[in-house]
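Consider the tokenized backbone below.
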């Protein structure tokens, strides 16, 4: 049976309230203090309302996801590749969940509140405090993501860390094989420079924040998880090939 907190997360009026206040608080940092550059939202036009998985690289704990939610809401109101005036917060797009580490989301009052915006908490494969090592997602965590995909869009970060070019987790590829969703790759940049690790404080104002949504991937769901994972990592530009091509003077430890 779902807990009270899980029921609240899936209660859309509660999500709308959280979106409104989180959106108002975060909008200036994305669109005024910094410069948000969006591309690829034309790929949303024919997407179904469920079984859509957004896979992205990861640079901050919260700013990345908050930006996605802003963009989804703006697109719902007919905007393409821009936010404009945030009147979209009056009736936001709430059919979306995001995957986050349980330890991160229970770390503060703000993170607990943000869970109500549709968070799906999962246990990390490796926990540096307990030294516990797991080879994959807890079955209950997998079921939560499966259920979310049956009804909504889901945002996930295959690397499970904000460290650039970290290897992807096979759990994402296994999920794709099992559910067979539409998979949209997303490449973000600039967030690590503009915000602190949590994404709640400014580091450098006037930074260009880029979010690029690519066309849905053509995935062979019968392929091995390794092949699917390689395809995902290349699409989000976090593969070894991209690491060898690019400048990595900005790489920092998690």
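A designed sequence for it:
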């Amino acid at each position: 049976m779902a807990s009270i907190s899980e029921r609240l997360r899936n209660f859309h009026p509660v999500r709308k309230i959280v979106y409104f206040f989180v959106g108002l608080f975060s909008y200036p940092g994305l669109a005024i203090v910094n410069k948000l550059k969006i591309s690829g939202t034309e790929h949303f036009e024919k997407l179904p309302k469920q079984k859509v998985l957004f896979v992205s690289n990861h640079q901050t704990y919260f700013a990345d996801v908050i930006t996605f939610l802003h963009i989804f809401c703006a697109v719902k109101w007919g905007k393409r590749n821009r936010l404009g005036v945030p009147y979209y917060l009056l009736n936001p797009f709430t059919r979306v969940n995001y995957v986050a580490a349980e330890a991160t989301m229970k770390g503060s009052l703000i993170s607990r509140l943000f869970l109500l915006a549709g968070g799906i908490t999962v246990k990390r494969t490796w926990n540096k405090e307990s030294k516990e090592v797991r080879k994959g997602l807890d079955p209950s965590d997998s079921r939560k993501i499966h259920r979310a995909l049956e009804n909504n869009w889901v945002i996930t970060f295959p690397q499970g860390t904000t460290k650039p070019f970290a290897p992807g987790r096979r759990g994402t590829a296994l999920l794709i094989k099992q559910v067979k969703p539409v998979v949209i790759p997303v490449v973000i940049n600039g967030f690590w420079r503009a915000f602190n690790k949590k994404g709640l404080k400014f580091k450098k104002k006037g930074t260009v924040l880029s979010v690029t949504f690519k066309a849905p991937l053509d995935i062979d769901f019968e392929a091995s998880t390794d092949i699917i994972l390689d395809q995902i990592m290349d699409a989000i530009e976090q593969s070894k090939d991209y690491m060898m091509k690019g400048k990595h003077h900005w790489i920092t430890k998690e």
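The longest helix spans residues 12-31.
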